[in-house]
Structure formats: C-alpha cells, structure tokens
Amino acid sequence: MKNLLVLIVLVYLTVNITIFLLSSTYMNINIKKAPQLAGSATEVTIETKEYYIPVSKFASLTTTTSMDLLNSGKVFSLTLNRGKLPLNVTNIVIIEPTEIISYLEQGYTGLLFPDQVTPKFKTLSIDGQNYWTKSFISDNYPLYYIESKKIPVNTKSTKVQDLRETIFIGGEIIASRAVDRLSLHKNNNYTFMYDFFASEIRTADLAISMLENPVLGNPNPCTGCMVLVSDDRNIKGLKDVGFDMFSTAGNHAGDGGQKGYSNTIELLKAEGLLYSGTGNTDNAKNLPAIFEMNGKRIGMISADSAASYFWYKGTNNYGTNWFSNSMNDGIDTERVKMVGVLKAEMKIDYLIVYLSWGWEYTNKASKFQEELAHLLIDNGADMIVASHPHWVQNIEFYKDKPIFYALGNFLFDQNHTDPTREGIVLNLHYFNHELKAIDIEPHISCGPFITSKNITNDYLAGKISMETLQTKNEKEGCVYFQPKKLLETDSRYKEILDRLFQYTIIK
Fold it and tell me: I need a labelling partner for 211 at 20 to 30 A (CA). Which of 35, 144, 234, 493 fits?
C-alpha cells in the first residue's frame, strides 16, 4: 500500500511538471483536466489559444486597430475558420480564401490565423500589440480561439520569441557634403543622425542599409560638389548605432579612388561590419555577405547599374558589382545566373539582393528595373531592395517575393525638394523563418532650404527631445539632415505613402 501511494505521488508530480513546461509554448497552454494516474500515461489534454491576426490591404495608411473598431466596422474571416472564430467579435463575414484581396480593397479588416497571413497584407497592431514582434505578450492579446487537444507528455516547449525575427533595412546613406560640414564633423558625433530609428536598428536581428559613398580619412567638407567622400569616423558611428551589414555598391563608391574602396572595406572589417558589392576582382565584387540568424544563413549580394565607369570589369582594380551591360540598360544574364550558383555553393537559406539602379527623381520603376528584378528572383533571390533614384518607388511582389524598387534617401543633404528629403525604412517580420509582415515607416529630413535655424546644439545638449522634434514646426528650427520618423497624423506621412503606392499593385 505504501509503495502504491509513492507511485501515485511520483506520477502526479511528473504530470504537473510537464504541464508547467508546456505553459511557455508558442500557443498559450493551460491544463484542462489531469490525465489518468497510470504509469503508462503518454498524453495530456490541454487547452491552447489559437491567435488571430487583424490584417488590412497592403497599401493601407493605418497601422493599428482596436476591439471597439473591429466590432463597429467591417470584418471577415475564412470558411476554413468557421466554428473557431473569436467570441469577442460579433460581426464577422465568412468568405473564401480567393476573395481576401477583394474584401480588403473594400475596406474590410481580415481576421486570419498565423499560417494564413502573407506579407501581401498589412498586419495591424491591436490594442497596442503586434503579433509578429518580440514584444508580443500572449496574456494581453485579445483575439484568440480556445481549443482542447491531446499532446504527447514529452512535447518540447518552444518560446514564442524564438520564432520571431526582424530585419531592418534603410535606404542610401550619404554622410558627406553638407551632412558632414554642418552636422557630423562639426559636432564630432556620428550616431545622432539615426536616433529616431536607433532602437529598431539595435533590436533587429539584422540591420542593413546602403553606404553610398566611400570613407577616406578626414576629407575637407564641400558644398554642392559631386565628389562624395565621408569621414572615417562614420564607420564606427554606424557600428555604434547597431548596423550589421551594408551594400557598398553605390554609384558614388569610386569617388575616393582606389584608396577610398580599400579604406572603406578595411574599416568595415575592423568594426566587424559585413559588406557586399565592391572588391578588386570580378568574383570578389559578386560575393555575398553572410549573416547567421537563428540557425539560418542570410546572404546579401549588391550591385550598381547607374555608374558603369566604376565596374572595372576584368581588372584587379577595386570597383562595384554589376548585373547590366551598360548604365540601366541590358541585363548581363550570365552574371545574374551566378546568383543562384553562389546561393547554392555557400548554402544560403535566404538571399537579399541590394541594388543601386534606375533613373533619378521618379517614383515609378523602369522596365529595365522590373526585368532585372524578376530575373534575379528567377535565379534564387528571395527579396530585392534598392536605392539611387533619391525618391521612393513602387513595390511589387513577383512569385510572392517582395521587390522594393527604391527606399529613397536615408541620410543625405538633398532638402531642396520634398520628394528628395522623404524616404522610408522597412521592418520585415519573420515567423519561424517565413516573411509574414512588412512595416513601412516614412521619414523626412530638414536642412537649410527649409529653415535657417539649426537646433542641433540644443538637441545634443538635451534641451529638445525627439518627441518635441516630431511635432515641432520645422520652419521654426530643425536638426539639420536628421531623418525624422513621421507620425501617422502628419500630412507628410500620407504624402510619402501615396507616392510609394501610386504605382504599387498587389495581386
């Protein structure tokens, strides 16, 4: 009898320890009833929360919703989900999966399970929570369905944060000319330009941008010149901000001559920063940078199509990578085919191609850009991202792979027109290594063409906060050239997205 009681206690403790471990799995798990007290028990019955994600059309200007808005608006879910709908939303229309895009275009909000969401939809935060971010807290998330199921007692626990990854991508950085003369060099501070996005850059699993021009010593700052060379100290500044990887294949990459190429590469390596797109052989120029992210190899190949005089094909001169036969014209198909070969040989799981291409000062990609982007995806690229036009350009999904034709300027002194001082950054959210959501964040910079009052000194002294800068009338003073994240209530927020989406078609 005494041995039987001991056995019962041991079984009881084993079951409860198992339940405790399961409580941190990716779907919130709670015990519903205890299994039979038997030494041969292999399953436990649990309750799981199956979460719903609210989505709108890709080109929607809003990023958030609430339970009140859902219950007072137009909402749909899928026939596949019938009988498993959240109880706290009462006005759900049931549709077929083939009707999703049509209903989103009509202004409906969709409620979808995680495996039904694609990056062609805009994921909305609800009551302050975005399902795909690492800050997701299951206990506070309001959209779910509770289901009972049996699972093996020895089921392994997976923390929800381990399934979530974010890649941050910014546009072209040209920390030269007036940016250097009036801001960076003047203040001996090479990080404050990125303050509005510093938290996102540092917390991203991988942070990428384009370093458009070389760095070489402490160059004499110039005004209005077209030879763009930055101070060496920019590289450590970029490292301190939290960047991981750069395209160095900008159309100004050769502005510092052969020494500019080699110096930039040496400093990037010294700071542990990855780069692609430049080298002193044809093969080196095409080599991908590779970043290990949660057990997967993320690769990036970079190239320029806007300045063929910096390619130096077939020589031992430093130069930029290329995929075209001449400037923005004619595709080097053999060079493009090497993308797939390199991806396979270097065992890359996810390949980004970062390009400098296209015609300046237009928000619509050219036929050349479209054809090259499609061929790169046909040959293994998983995502295309680009800059050079100095304006934002349209977005496309080709074979369900995203193409961002131009992100606009991230850091430059072109504040003489609104489109050149406006740009976007991307936060790409992956779940279990699959791209699920794209957050697009518009930003704007200010400079002497906007106001004669540079308030950088007050900002660096802590007299003005970022929150104040976001709402301050920039004509009354601004931090010169700093890309400022725009609030959704700012008219320029809509202006940038309208220009971005003007030629964007999601199919």
Answer: 493
Q: Is the pLDDT of residue 22 over 50?
A: no
pLDDT digits (tens, 9 = 90+) for 493-505: 999 999 999 999 9
Domain ranges of the chain: 1-49, 162-445+481-501
- Tally Cβ neighbours within 10 Å of residue 135: 10
Helix and strand numbers (H, E) in the chain are 15, 28
Question: What pTM, to 2 d.p., does this model score?
Answer: 0.90
Which residue is listed with tokens 């500044």?
237
Q: Thinking of the domain 162-445+481-501, which architecture would CATH place it in?
A: 4-Layer Sandwich (3.60)
Mean pLDDT of the chain: 91
Phi-psi region of 120 (alpha: psi -120 to 50; beta: other; left: phi over 0): alpha
User: Is residue 305 a contact partner of residue 357, using CB atoms and an 8 Å limit?
Assistant: yes
Phi, psi (rounded to 5 degrees) for 445: -120, 160
What per-residue string of b and e applies to 30-47 under the rule 16 or more CB within 10 Å gives b? Answer: ebeeebeeeeeeeebebe
418 within 8 A of 384, measured Cβ to Cβ: no
Structure tokens at 53: 């994600």
Residue 470 neighbours by CB under 8 Å, 6+ apart: 484, 485, 486, 487, 490
Reported residue count of the chain is 507
> What is the structure's pLDDT at 87?
87
Model pLDDT, residue 6: 41
Encode pLDDT of 138-168 as tens digits: 888 999 999 877 777 666 555 555 689 999 9
Angle, vertex CA 270, rays to CA 265 and CA 272, nearest 5:
95
Question: So what's the pLDDT on residue 13?
Answer: 41
Decide the pairing of beta strands 350-356 and 383-387. parallel
Helix (H) or strand (E) holding 491: helix 491-501
